[in-house]
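Archive entry. Fields below.
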Amino acid sequence: MSSLQPVRGTHDLLPDDSRRHRWVEEVAFAAAKRYGFGEIVTPIFEFTEVFSRTLGETSDVVTKEMYTFADRSGDSLTLRPEGTAGVARAFISNGLAQSLPLKLFYRGPMFRHERPQKGRLRQFHQVGVELLGVESPLADVEVIALAWRVLSELGLAGKVRLELNTLGDADSRAAYRDTLTAYLSDFRASLSEDSRNRLDRNPLRVLDSKDEGDRKIVEGAPLMSDSLTPSAREFFATVTDGLTQLGIPFVVNPKLVRGLDYYCHTAFEFTTTALGAQGTVLAGGRYDELIAQMGGVRTPGIGWAAGIERLSMLVDQVPAGVRPITVIPMGDALRAMAVAERLRRAGMTVDLGYSGNMKKRMARADKVNARFAVIMGEDEASRGAVTIRDLDGGTQDEVPLASLEEHLGRLL
RNA sequence: GCGGGUGUAGCUCAGUUGGUUAGAGCGCCAGUUUGUGGUACUGGAUGUCGGCGGUUCGAUUCCGCUCACUCGCCCCA
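PREDICTED_STRUCTURE:
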């Protein structure tokens, strides 16, 4: 192992990648703000129990994917594998039950010790939202609408598909779990080994098994929708009606389940076929019992998270950045830097080479995609002037140095 | 964590049926043009042939291990 390689599953974002990454992040944040969300920034590590108690002791994330370590005082800490648990913890720590409903947006790195693949990293980045304190299914509709808005503004509306399901309330889930387990147990011997394990630990997961034999068995399985209590059924109907009224396309997938234990009622996923095995691009659901489970006052919540790397791979092109102005000195480089400073003070983006003759500096201007070059030659200097060259048109004009900002301002 | 594929210059890739100085295109640097770019032409630099070990007179080429990436499973954003 070479120590000059990045750690497995981590990645450097060079300026071009970074521009794309930030753009995705900013589009999401800007949309969230329009829906009334504010940003929350929580630590990237927490006490281990923040995650182990909320995500489910048996979930894969907790049992084998967390970066957990003892710090110098012996506390067990964990690099966050997802964002919701930390937001829930912050909600309790800060007594935010006083200010409901609460709309929070977050972004940043997450860590999971998985086997890396395309679209699956050990340090990856998410944007996400949480809406806390609203019992009504209208919250579900609005939060999904925001997700759809974000994806649309990233130009991905045609590339993703919204799948929706309900996991019901606690009573519905308990009832369904029983009937499903009873059904699957009859086929125990024919199930795949993975699914036999799932049957014991989290039977709902058998539903989305990819094993051929399992799928046949699952086809005949009882559906969640048959076990729903009347109120859970009505809740889900309001969500689907709401999405229909807002013109957001979706398909109900009765086999859609969630990996993390805290979900109930609405579960949804935006998926794509363009990323191989990593088809989920944005996913979320409702978690009414999470905060109570963590020891806070029972506060319903719903949210989603999206993987920035996965979104970035789907995005065709990001808007170009600002084109700079290049200042090219023929003689006194310090004088040029002073002029560059003047232009920057006036709000302009200015590139200034550090060396080279005129030809070199012009070539550099081209490479940084400069819009104009300000040429500071000795001839012009003697007249108190400077030349502005239009790099697209190839034309140039001499203007007084004193009014350079004004001239450039007109041209830009 | 399990199974398959790949690993040669900054990038994309060719090549060596095991044999002396390992190639192309793009990019980079310099020049044709000592005050003018994006084109063209000329020249130049750059590789522990992923790493370690083995077989061999000799390995970038064969074998083993390892690391990384990648595809599928698992899981998930």
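CURATOR_NOTE: The two ends of chain A are 51 Å apart (CA to CA).
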